[in-house]
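[Automated response] Your request has been received and processed.

Submitted sequence:
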Amino acid sequence: MSSYKPAGRLGESDMQVVDDPRLDARLAKLLRIVGMDKNSPATRLTVDASIADISKMAAQADREAEGLYAMLPNDLPGDDKEPQVERSDFSTKGPDGNDVALHVFRKAGTTGQTLPCVVYSHGGGMVNLSTINKVHVRWLTSLALAGVVSIAIDFRNAYTEAGHNPFPAGLNDCAAGVQYIASHKADLGINKIIMQGESGGCNLAFATALKAKKEGWIDSIDGVFGIVPYISNAWGWPTERLLKELPSCIENDGYFLRVKNMAVYGHYYTPNAKDKANPLAWPYHATADDLKGLPPHYLLMDELDPLRDEGNAYYRKLNDAGVPVTAHVNLGTLHGSALIFRQAMPEVHYAVVDSIAAFAKRLPVKHVASSRL
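Generated structure:
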């Protein structure tokens, strides 16, 4: 008789995250210290809830997420001895006449050098989190210190205090930001553009590349590096389908992310039925024709993440479509560990940063446009 037992909650439905033997011991220790040792609770709302009710949920989640990012220890010994990173800010106009801020991070002393550019779109399910907070600024700083110019696009979240901004608002802001950067390469001292994001920001990085191909400006993007892709909108599927296509949604449900909550946020981002499987909203649903001709991609997933398998699936789709693509899974990690749990797992943080910088540096240079900011 076989003693095999499926991993996580597939093998033990009431498994708590800190009791999963796959979890890195450093993360388990931190989760216990900060009171995150239990699985994340599920919302009482469903996808049938009103946009007004989901907005209230999103407002609370936004406060909690910002509070978590502010509370979690993220610094490391030696941070104060790092070389200086300079920041400058620009803005361009979005498609709705809105201002789209661009936050530029560059290692001091590199003015006059031409460097690769990593264009960053932050996580938060396209719904929550500010662009400039402790975790994101540290990430942009680490990237700049690794020898790239990192630029964060301050896209519109689906939830803001001012109102609801569903798809394609955030995507259009990202596209406007990338096109601005591409037309000002010389002024910014950059020679190529790599889209990079985690979670919902990874969705936007993938979707920006798909939009650029569809609209004929894909040559502006030299590569895409996606971390823990949040791209399926499959979280309300029947259990049988999830087990067949995305078993990590059950295996790791509640480990930092709760699948039911993501289903509600997916509806909030794409309330219109026609967008539920639109590849520009949810790149998991891209066809081979959508993907053919995209620039090189690099995907990184976390082992104990409910989203792990949609990233794995997108890797295979890219590969089947002939897109140059590399992927790996970080073992023992939760969703977004490289950014969120930097202090607990510094080796993971810097391994991912170094991978992004190396990916950016080895891509060939196409051209540098002359321009004036």
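Summary generated for your ticket: Strands lie at 85-93, 99-107, 115-121, 149-154, 159-160, 163-164, 190-198, 223-227, 297-302, 325-330. The chain has a mean pLDDT of 96.
If you did not submit this request, please reply to this message.
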